[in-house]
């Protein structure tokens, strides 16, 4: 008799990084001297508006799964203009390990740079565990338009565990640092009236613009579950809750027309 072959080990968790570097080309436009993706993080050049360079983030495979660690790094040099979008929603999926998945975004904006970060929603699938972090560092004269959208579960399913954090510094000083946890294992009351109030879609729009130093935006209610809050700096944060991703996008698009560029 021959013994059965040993079971194949689980494949190693995925590690992948996508890197973007935008620089002013000296002719009034923006060049992309670095555009490099790995694994599920594929990058494609697209047509931007006016003088900006456009980049599309294309998911080349299912990710992130439990244990995966994905990173996107984008650097905008002095005077560069960059717009980054994604081709489809990102699904946080259960993996073969109990380890949480990680999805990190790192943005660096030099003086006079302008970045529009406009990905499609992040969907927290039942059984998943994702830690998402976004960190942006801005020079005093940089501009940032950043949209984040999160959907808690697919149609008719409960969400996984989603922990997200957004940290922004300007001229080396903290501008915004906030964290949110939703789903099974999150602090009690995450779906109560003080957090999501039972809504399945939540998002925010952050606009940092030096022009707000002279003409600061005012606090405003933009809907039953949407509000604009001026920050202690030339910035405004719009937060919104909605029953679904479509309504959430409508709320944030309206805010973008009001505060964006």
TrEMBL record:
Pfam families for the chain: UreD
The entry's keywords: Chaperone, Cytoplasm, Nickel insertion
Gene: ureD
Family stated for the protein in its record: Belongs to the UreD family.
Locations listed in the record: Cytoplasm
Top-rank lineage group of the source organism: Bacteria
Function: Required for maturation of urease via the functional incorporation of the urease nickel metallocenter.
HAMAP family for the chain: UreD (MF_01384)
Name of this protein: Urease accessory protein UreD
